[in-house]
Design brief:
CATH topology: Jelly Rolls
Helix content: under 10%
CATH class: Mainly Beta
Radius of gyration: 16 Å
Number of helices: 2
Order of helices and strands: HEEEEEEEEEEEEEEEHEEEEE
């Protein structure tokens, strides 16, 4: 799906105060992302905007999560409004970022974990973050934690625009969320970005947000990981309209 196509489909508007979505996707299929992992979405944020997709859970649980996010302030040495992806846990961050201010336009993001490149001493080498079909493997300036084993992965539900441990909510429009239980190839990521290719191999969550009413977003992956909407508003585009809050 091109940026132009993103403007013609549905989405959800998050106010940055208390809106979020709880998906039915629990952890990494109840195990670890041994075959890799991919998180992707379309997003549009402005000043004060932010995005969070992950399943770390509350502070103190000690779980590892693969988190894709855009923060509204400098974090881990990365300027505000840059995309980051990495391994997230209490007192741990090992990840990569894409050096670009992403405000005020639609962007396609993807975070990819290539498990075959994982090492406890440098887990960030297994991470990639993609923006509009371009890959970055640039490590964030701050890398926190070392000797990280390939275990204790989170079994919490994936949340959209609520990072529980940081107690912060995302703000902006989000569309076309997909999560795969494998690392997509470069060609696959570009095919999804450029023409909206529907790649089903490994797809465990697909929310296109085209219901436009109610408080449920249905998972189109076939895995039944339907999502519950808390406060976020449906967006209908062409022309752009933000609908009343879901009830």
């Amino acid at each position: 799906m091109s940026a132009r196509r993103a403007l013609r489909t549905g989405g959800l508007w998050f106010d940055g105060v208390d809106d979020y979505v709880e998906t039915g996707l629990v952890g990494y299929q109840g195990a670890s992302p041994k075959n890799g992992w991919t998180i992707m979405c379309w997003v549009k944020i402005g000043s004060g905007g932010a995005l969070y997709i992950g399943n770390r859970g509350e502070e103190g649980l000690g779980y590892y999560s693969l988190t894709l996010f855009i923060h509204r302030f400098t974090l881990f040495g990365v300027p505000a409004y840059n995309a980051q992806f990495g391994l997230d846990r209490d007192g741990v961050w090992r990840g990569v970022y894409f050096s670009k201010d992403l405000r005020d336009s639609w962007h396609h993001l993807a975070g990819v974990f290539r498990s075959e490149l994982y090492s406890p001493s440098a887990p960030e080498k297994a991470m990639e973050v993609w923006v509009d079909g371009v890959r970055s493997t640039t490590p964030t300036p701050s890398q926190i934690g070392s000797g990280i084993p390939f275990d204790t992965w989170s079994r919490e539900k994936y949340l959209i625009n609520y990072h529980q441990a940081w107690a912060t909510f995302g703000r902006g429009i989000v569309s076309e969320i997909r999560i795969y239980n494998r690392a997509l190839t470069e060609d696959e990521i570009r095919a999804i970005y450029e023409r909206g290719a529907l790649i089903r191999d490994g797809l465990v969550l697909h929310l296109d947000f085209t219901e436009y009413e109610g408080n449920v977003a249905y998972d189109k992956s076939g895995c039944g990981n339907h999502a519950t909407i808390y406060g976020a508003r449906w967006v209908v585009k062409k022309p752009l309209r933000v609908l009343p809050k879901a009830r």
